[in-house]
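Pipeline run #58 for the internal structure catalog. This entry was flagged by the ingest filter as a single-chain record with no existing model, so it goes straight to prediction. Upstream metadata was stripped on purpose; only the residue string is passed forward. Reviewer on rotation: M.T. Logging verbosity set to normal.
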Amino acid sequence: MQLHFKESGQGRAVILLHGLFGSSDNWHPIVLRLAERFQVFALDQRNHGQSPHSAEMTYSLMAGDVNEFMAARGLETASVIGHSMGGKTAMAFALQFPGKVEKLIVADMAPRAYLPSHDKFFLALLALDLKSFSTRQQMEDALAPEIPNLVLRRFLLKNLGRDAGGGFFWKINLRGLSENYPRLGEAIPAARAFAGPTLFIRGGKSKYIGVEDEPLIRGLFPQSQIQTIAGANHWVHADQPEEFLKLVMGFLE
Protein backbone atom coordinates (compact mmCIF):
# COMPACT_ATOMS: atom_id res chain seq x y z
CA MET A 1 0.00 0.00 0.00
CA GLN A 2 1.44 3.35 -1.08
CA LEU A 3 0.82 5.78 1.78
CA HIS A 4 0.33 9.50 1.23
CA PHE A 5 3.00 11.59 2.96
CA LYS A 6 4.45 15.05 3.40
CA GLU A 7 8.20 15.57 3.31
CA SER A 8 10.24 18.40 4.84
CA GLY A 9 13.86 19.18 5.70
CA GLN A 10 17.16 17.41 5.23
CA GLY A 11 19.31 15.12 7.33
CA ARG A 12 18.67 11.81 9.06
CA ALA A 13 15.22 10.43 8.32
CA VAL A 14 12.37 10.75 10.84
CA ILE A 15 8.94 9.20 10.23
CA LEU A 16 5.84 10.52 12.03
CA LEU A 17 2.69 8.42 12.55
CA HIS A 18 -0.60 9.99 13.70
CA GLY A 19 -3.37 8.54 15.86
CA LEU A 20 -6.92 7.35 15.20
CA PHE A 21 -9.08 9.85 13.26
CA GLY A 22 -5.93 11.88 12.57
CA SER A 23 -3.70 12.60 9.61
CA SER A 24 -0.24 13.87 8.74
CA ASP A 25 -1.55 17.42 9.29
CA ASN A 26 -1.75 16.79 13.05
CA TRP A 27 2.04 16.94 13.20
CA HIS A 28 2.44 20.24 11.34
CA PRO A 29 3.89 22.38 14.18
CA ILE A 30 6.21 19.52 15.18
CA VAL A 31 7.29 18.96 11.57
CA LEU A 32 8.32 22.60 11.21
CA ARG A 33 10.75 22.30 14.09
CA LEU A 34 12.06 18.82 13.34
CA ALA A 35 12.68 19.76 9.71
CA GLU A 36 15.31 22.26 10.84
CA ARG A 37 17.60 19.30 11.60
CA PHE A 38 16.07 16.20 10.01
CA GLN A 39 14.41 14.90 6.86
CA VAL A 40 10.87 14.46 8.12
CA PHE A 41 8.17 12.28 6.60
CA ALA A 42 4.66 12.69 8.04
CA LEU A 43 2.53 9.77 6.86
CA ASP A 44 -1.20 9.25 6.49
CA GLN A 45 -1.84 5.72 7.72
CA ARG A 46 -4.20 3.45 5.77
CA ASN A 47 -7.86 4.50 5.95
CA HIS A 48 -6.80 8.00 7.03
CA GLY A 49 -6.08 11.30 5.29
CA GLN A 50 -5.25 10.85 1.61
CA SER A 51 -3.93 7.29 1.91
CA PRO A 52 -5.77 4.34 0.33
CA HIS A 53 -8.71 2.67 2.03
CA SER A 54 -8.67 -0.99 2.98
CA ALA A 55 -11.10 -3.43 4.56
CA GLU A 56 -8.17 -4.92 6.50
CA MET A 57 -6.42 -3.05 9.26
CA THR A 58 -4.06 -4.61 11.80
CA TYR A 59 -0.85 -3.36 13.33
CA SER A 60 1.14 -6.00 11.45
CA LEU A 61 -0.31 -4.70 8.18
CA MET A 62 0.32 -1.08 9.14
CA ALA A 63 3.91 -1.91 10.09
CA GLY A 64 4.21 -3.46 6.65
CA ASP A 65 2.90 -0.23 5.13
CA VAL A 66 5.72 1.70 6.80
CA ASN A 67 8.25 -0.87 5.57
CA GLU A 68 6.89 -0.52 2.04
CA PHE A 69 7.06 3.27 2.31
CA MET A 70 10.71 3.16 3.37
CA ALA A 71 11.60 0.79 0.55
CA ALA A 72 9.87 3.04 -2.01
CA ARG A 73 11.78 6.08 -0.73
CA GLY A 74 15.11 4.24 -0.54
CA LEU A 75 15.37 4.69 3.23
CA GLU A 76 17.54 2.04 4.86
CA THR A 77 16.89 3.29 8.40
CA ALA A 78 14.82 5.98 10.10
CA SER A 79 13.80 7.12 13.53
CA VAL A 80 10.08 6.56 14.03
CA ILE A 81 7.73 8.66 16.16
CA GLY A 82 4.14 7.59 16.72
CA HIS A 83 1.26 8.93 18.81
CA SER A 84 -1.56 6.75 20.17
CA MET A 85 -2.59 4.38 17.34
CA GLY A 86 0.48 5.59 15.49
CA GLY A 87 2.51 4.69 18.56
CA LYS A 88 1.29 1.11 18.29
CA THR A 89 2.15 1.07 14.60
CA ALA A 90 5.60 2.39 15.44
CA MET A 91 6.10 -0.30 18.10
CA ALA A 92 4.89 -3.02 15.75
CA PHE A 93 7.25 -1.76 13.04
CA ALA A 94 10.24 -1.76 15.40
CA LEU A 95 9.43 -5.28 16.59
CA GLN A 96 8.91 -6.63 13.05
CA PHE A 97 11.71 -4.71 11.31
CA PRO A 98 14.23 -3.87 14.06
CA GLY A 99 17.12 -3.29 11.67
CA LYS A 100 15.30 -0.41 10.02
CA VAL A 101 14.67 1.62 13.17
CA GLU A 102 17.42 3.95 14.34
CA LYS A 103 15.47 5.25 17.34
CA LEU A 104 11.87 4.77 18.45
CA ILE A 105 9.66 7.36 20.17
CA VAL A 106 6.17 6.45 21.38
CA ALA A 107 3.81 9.22 22.52
CA ASP A 108 1.34 8.18 25.24
CA MET A 109 0.69 4.57 24.28
CA ALA A 110 1.69 1.22 25.76
CA PRO A 111 1.98 -2.08 23.85
CA ARG A 112 -0.92 -3.62 25.79
CA ALA A 113 -4.58 -4.08 24.89
CA TYR A 114 -7.01 -1.22 25.59
CA LEU A 115 -10.72 -1.33 26.25
CA PRO A 116 -12.83 0.35 23.53
CA SER A 117 -13.44 4.02 24.26
CA HIS A 118 -14.37 5.47 20.86
CA ASP A 119 -17.53 3.53 20.04
CA LYS A 120 -19.76 6.54 20.69
CA PHE A 121 -17.69 8.61 18.24
CA PHE A 122 -18.16 6.05 15.49
CA LEU A 123 -21.88 5.79 16.16
CA ALA A 124 -22.33 9.57 16.13
CA LEU A 125 -20.33 10.07 12.93
CA LEU A 126 -21.93 7.17 11.09
CA ALA A 127 -25.37 8.51 12.03
CA LEU A 128 -24.74 11.77 10.17
CA ASP A 129 -26.54 12.00 6.83
CA LEU A 130 -23.94 14.11 5.04
CA LYS A 131 -26.33 14.99 2.22
CA SER A 132 -28.60 16.81 4.65
CA PHE A 133 -25.94 19.32 5.75
CA SER A 134 -24.70 22.38 3.91
CA THR A 135 -22.17 23.66 6.50
CA ARG A 136 -19.71 22.21 9.01
CA GLN A 137 -21.37 24.30 11.71
CA GLN A 138 -24.59 22.36 11.20
CA MET A 139 -22.70 19.12 11.73
CA GLU A 140 -20.92 20.48 14.79
CA ASP A 141 -24.31 21.29 16.27
CA ALA A 142 -25.75 17.89 15.34
CA LEU A 143 -22.87 16.08 17.07
CA ALA A 144 -23.01 18.20 20.25
CA PRO A 145 -25.42 15.97 22.24
CA GLU A 146 -23.20 12.89 21.80
CA ILE A 147 -19.83 14.70 21.68
CA PRO A 148 -20.06 17.80 23.92
CA ASN A 149 -16.38 18.75 23.56
CA LEU A 150 -16.19 21.34 20.77
CA VAL A 151 -12.45 20.85 20.19
CA LEU A 152 -13.00 17.12 19.75
CA ARG A 153 -15.95 17.67 17.39
CA ARG A 154 -13.87 19.97 15.22
CA PHE A 155 -10.97 17.52 15.23
CA LEU A 156 -13.24 14.70 14.04
CA LEU A 157 -14.83 16.88 11.37
CA LYS A 158 -11.41 17.68 9.89
CA ASN A 159 -11.90 14.33 8.17
CA LEU A 160 -14.58 15.84 5.93
CA GLY A 161 -13.96 16.84 2.36
CA ARG A 162 -16.13 18.47 -0.32
CA ASP A 163 -16.71 17.02 -3.76
CA ALA A 164 -16.94 18.97 -7.03
CA GLY A 165 -20.60 19.65 -6.39
CA GLY A 166 -19.96 21.07 -2.93
CA GLY A 167 -21.26 18.05 -1.07
CA PHE A 168 -19.51 16.58 1.97
CA PHE A 169 -17.75 13.22 2.04
CA TRP A 170 -15.54 11.38 4.53
CA LYS A 171 -11.87 11.37 3.60
CA ILE A 172 -11.30 8.62 6.15
CA ASN A 173 -12.70 5.13 5.64
CA LEU A 174 -15.16 5.68 8.47
CA ARG A 175 -17.02 2.38 8.17
CA GLY A 176 -13.78 0.44 7.67
CA LEU A 177 -12.28 2.02 10.78
CA SER A 178 -15.41 1.22 12.76
CA GLU A 179 -15.35 -2.43 11.68
CA ASN A 180 -11.63 -2.76 12.47
CA TYR A 181 -11.75 -0.78 15.71
CA PRO A 182 -11.61 -3.89 17.97
CA ARG A 183 -8.32 -4.87 16.31
CA LEU A 184 -6.86 -1.43 16.96
CA GLY A 185 -7.31 -1.96 20.69
CA GLU A 186 -5.37 -5.23 20.72
CA ALA A 187 -1.93 -5.69 22.20
CA ILE A 188 1.06 -5.51 19.90
CA PRO A 189 2.12 -8.99 18.70
CA ALA A 190 5.76 -9.61 19.51
CA ALA A 191 7.94 -12.63 18.88
CA ARG A 192 11.04 -10.79 20.12
CA ALA A 193 12.09 -7.58 21.82
CA PHE A 194 13.38 -4.43 20.16
CA ALA A 195 16.84 -3.70 21.53
CA GLY A 196 17.26 -0.23 20.04
CA PRO A 197 17.01 3.12 21.85
CA THR A 198 13.38 3.83 22.74
CA LEU A 199 11.64 6.76 24.41
CA PHE A 200 8.10 6.65 25.79
CA ILE A 201 6.57 10.07 26.46
CA ARG A 202 3.40 10.07 28.53
CA GLY A 203 1.07 12.85 29.60
CA GLY A 204 0.94 13.55 33.29
CA LYS A 205 -2.86 13.82 33.13
CA SER A 206 -3.28 10.78 30.86
CA LYS A 207 -3.97 7.20 31.92
CA TYR A 208 -2.72 5.53 28.76
CA ILE A 209 0.63 4.57 30.31
CA GLY A 210 0.43 3.58 33.95
CA VAL A 211 3.01 2.28 36.39
CA GLU A 212 1.55 -1.18 35.82
CA ASP A 213 2.50 -0.95 32.12
CA GLU A 214 6.19 -0.40 32.78
CA PRO A 215 7.22 -4.10 33.14
CA LEU A 216 5.69 -4.91 29.73
CA ILE A 217 7.38 -1.88 28.19
CA ARG A 218 10.76 -2.83 29.66
CA GLY A 219 10.33 -6.42 28.52
CA LEU A 220 9.61 -5.57 24.89
CA PHE A 221 11.84 -2.48 24.76
CA PRO A 222 14.74 -3.16 27.17
CA GLN A 223 16.64 0.00 26.16
CA SER A 224 13.64 2.24 26.80
CA GLN A 225 13.20 5.25 29.01
CA ILE A 226 9.88 6.70 30.10
CA GLN A 227 9.43 10.44 30.46
CA THR A 228 6.34 12.24 31.77
CA ILE A 229 5.21 15.70 30.65
CA ALA A 230 3.34 17.23 33.59
CA GLY A 231 0.10 18.94 32.69
CA ALA A 232 -0.29 17.14 29.37
CA ASN A 233 -3.20 14.91 28.46
CA HIS A 234 -3.18 12.16 25.84
CA TRP A 235 -2.29 14.64 23.08
CA VAL A 236 1.11 15.33 24.61
CA HIS A 237 2.62 16.90 21.47
CA ALA A 238 -0.32 19.30 21.13
CA ASP A 239 -0.78 20.08 24.84
CA GLN A 240 2.90 20.80 25.59
CA PRO A 241 4.69 21.11 22.23
CA GLU A 242 7.82 22.82 23.55
CA GLU A 243 8.40 20.23 26.26
CA PHE A 244 7.62 17.44 23.80
CA LEU A 245 10.11 18.83 21.27
CA LYS A 246 12.75 19.25 23.94
CA LEU A 247 12.49 15.56 24.84
CA VAL A 248 12.36 14.45 21.21
CA MET A 249 15.28 16.59 20.05
CA GLY A 250 17.43 15.55 22.98
CA PHE A 251 16.72 11.88 22.33
CA LEU A 252 17.23 11.97 18.56
CA GLU A 253 20.51 13.79 18.81
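catalog note: The CA atoms of residues 124 and 143 lie 7 Å apart.
catalog note: Strands lie at 5-8, 13-17, 39-43, 78-83, 101-107, 160-162, 168-170, 198-203, 224-229.
status: ready for reviewer M.T.
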